[in-house]
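F.,

This is the one I mentioned.
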């Protein structure tokens, strides 16, 4: 069976995108493991299926490099918007589209140049701070700047859900951290029953943050859209930044602009196609 795919990335957070509008995808969990391998597969942080949807222009399903299914991907959804528009799955005059995800329907405002999407502004929905809904095992209304013992060290962490769970910790030394060593200890910490994505963040100023991320199921990635959103939320909750103002989050793969209010979190960033191909499965 031959499978058509498109390799895409949002500031180096790369996935293999596959349409199910005209193809059947057997066993996407195993397929994600195979195709994500950077030596024996196509290479990527996982695969994203672009599917027909009721009540939205398309639906996205995300499978991480280890085969686990994710609920939401901020960089991925921008690329899904580009995929849907560039391939003519919506009319060319339609630059505001909706994408269904496991964390709800999201609205994208597409920036189009010469008939192709260059970037997207995404309404990511309200940030979740209630511990039971993240989920995190914590007694209190919200887990902000709370102590957490990880790897025999106490970290101060803030827990946020953007449709998937995040643990944000602020540090003066982001570049010097050995994420391959400490990342798994955060991801599998018993405080987080569904595992967790972890953001390590340095505050540059009240509008600029530097971030590295360890993603559950994928390891360190060069960018994470929901992680950048969670980081901006945590920065505001900890008093480093202000709600309602644009915050630039600088990741290894590039920059995202996040704006956090009481009602929603808005993310703006680029989406890029790398190449298209066909693979035998």
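My design for it:
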């Amino acid at each position: 069976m031959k499978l058509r795919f498109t390799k895409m990335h949002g500031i180096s957070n790369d996935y293999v995108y596959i349409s199910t509008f005209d193809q059947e995808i057997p066993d996407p969990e195993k397929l994600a493991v195979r195709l994500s391998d950077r030596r024996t597969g196509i290479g990527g942080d996982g695969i994203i299926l672009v599917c027909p949807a009721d009540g939205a222009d398309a639906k996205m399903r995300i499978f991480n490099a280890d085969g686990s299914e994710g609920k939401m991907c901020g960089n991925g959804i921008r690329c899904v918007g580009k995929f849907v528009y560039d391939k003519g799955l919506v009319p060319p005059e339609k630059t505001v589209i909706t994408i269904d995800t496991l964390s709800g329907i999201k609205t994208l405002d597409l920036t189009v140049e010469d008939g192709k999407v260059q970037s997207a502004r995404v309404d990511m929905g309200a940030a979740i701070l209630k511990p039971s809904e993240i989920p995190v095992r914590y007694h209190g209304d919200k887990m902000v700047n709370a102590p957490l013992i990880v790897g025999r060290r106490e970290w101060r962490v803030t827990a946020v859900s953007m449709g998937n769970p995040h643990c944000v910790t602020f540090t003066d030394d982001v570049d010097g951290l050995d994420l391959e060593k400490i990342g798994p200890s955060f991801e599998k910490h018993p405080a987080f029953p569904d595992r967790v994505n972890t953001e390590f963040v340095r505050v540059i100023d009240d509008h600029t943050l530097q971030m590295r991320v360890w993603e559950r199921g994928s390891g360190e990635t060069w960018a994470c859209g929901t992680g950048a959103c969670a980081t901006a939320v945590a920065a505001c909750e900890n008093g480093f930044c202000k709600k309602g103002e644009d915050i630039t989050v600088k990741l290894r793969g590039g920059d995202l602009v996040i704006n956090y209010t009481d009602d929603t979190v808005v993310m703006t960033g680029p989406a890029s196609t790398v190449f298209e191909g066909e693979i035998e499965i």
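The first strand starts at residue 2 and ends at 10.

Talk soon.
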